[in-house]
Amino acid sequence: MTRPSRLLTTAAAGATAALLLAGCGGGGGDEKPKGGIAGADTGRTATASPSASAPPAPGRPKIDLPSDLSYTFDWSKTGEAAKDAVLADSEESIKAVDLAIANQDPMDKAYRFYYEGEAAAQIQQYVQAYVKAKARTTGHYRYYDPVVDVTGSDQASLVYCEDQGKAYDLYLKTNKVDKTAVTKNSYVLYSSKLRKNEKGVWAVEKLMSVRGSAKCQP
I need a labelling partner for 55 at 20 to 30 A (CA). Which of 32, 46, 95, 125 fits? Predict the structure, then answer.
């Protein structure tokens, strides 16, 4: 059973749009949310959990995730303030989607802090699919090979890879974890467009994904 990218790919979301965060494993090429649900730093690595997460920056929402959900961000600081801010806000935006799923709230305020416009609408649909399926994400996600570009004072792009091989869907009624084998489709390439808004947040406005991308294979 294929686990799609965390950005839900459906006719409603658009044939080529994918909702950002979590999805896992890999199998066929069908585009459904992970587990078949219908409906994507301060050092070299940083693993986040409720006990290990750094306090949110002033004005940022606190993201308290289930203890069985964690992340590694294999992207180092660039030494350029704007690029490092894009990477930092992107980490939080990724985790904010899983928080909405854990809260079973398609309008959760944390992800709406980091997503705007088209991307926010896609995330809402993606989270709604999990709510409908009474499921959430679990396991470990790794993000790596970032390429960040900042244009002017308020426009940026970020391309990066996601390893979903150790991340799964957990069904809330049964507490069953839907594990799938690791294949080339466990690796996803993401491309995002961001804008620095009036709050000083690098918000995601557009997000695309390519499952099984050759660029992200181990």
Answer: 125
Q: How confident is the model at residue 102 (pLDDT cuts 50, 70, 90)?
A: very high
Cβ(3)–Cβ(138) below 8 Å: no
φ and ψ of 62, to 5 deg: -80, 130
Name the 3-class secondary structure at 98.
helix
Residue range 143-191, pLDDT digits in tens: 999 999 999 899 999 999 999 999 999 999 999 999 889 999 999 999 9
The pTM (predicted TM-score) of the whole model is 0.79
Which residues are registered as beta bridge partners of 74? 144
**CA separation, residue 67 to residues 59, 64, 134 (Å):** 24, 9, 19
